[in-house]
Amino acid sequence: MLSVGQADGICLGGAVVRALQARSDFRVRALTRNPGKHPDLAEEVVEADLDCSASLQAAFKGAHGVFLVTNFWEEGTDELKHGRKGV
């Protein structure tokens, strides 16, 4: 299982999900702040919020790897804090 953040995006996270699904032996867990809007992104779609450590722990549980994208473009985002939470 690989957990991929920002999976609902058309760029980086979404592209990683699509590439893994096309070429990987791993199952994909798509991470998004709004899983109800994107139920068909991957084998699993779960809520993950970079401001909520508990949601990240649940989203990463059992994953062999994580691909995380921070929200650097959002006003007031602390990218370093989000990155540390992800680690």
Features:
single chain, 87 residues, four-stranded parallel sheet, 3 helices
Layout of secondary structure:
Elements: E1 2-4, H1 12-23, E2 28-32, E3 44-47, H2 53-60, E4 65-67, H3 79-86
Parallel strand pairs: 1-2, 1-4, 2-3
Concise account of the structure shown:
The chain has 87 residues and is an alpha/beta fold.
Walk me through this protein's architecture.
The protein is of the alpha/beta class and 87 residues long. Helices cover 32% and strands 17% of the residues. It has helices at 12-23, 53-60, 79-86; strands spanning 2-4, 28-32, 44-47, 65-67. It has a 4-stranded parallel beta sheet with strand order 3-2-1-4, sandwiched between helices. Helix 1 links the parallel strand 1 (2-4) and strand 2 (28-32). The longest helix has 12 residues, at 12-23. The mean pLDDT is 87.
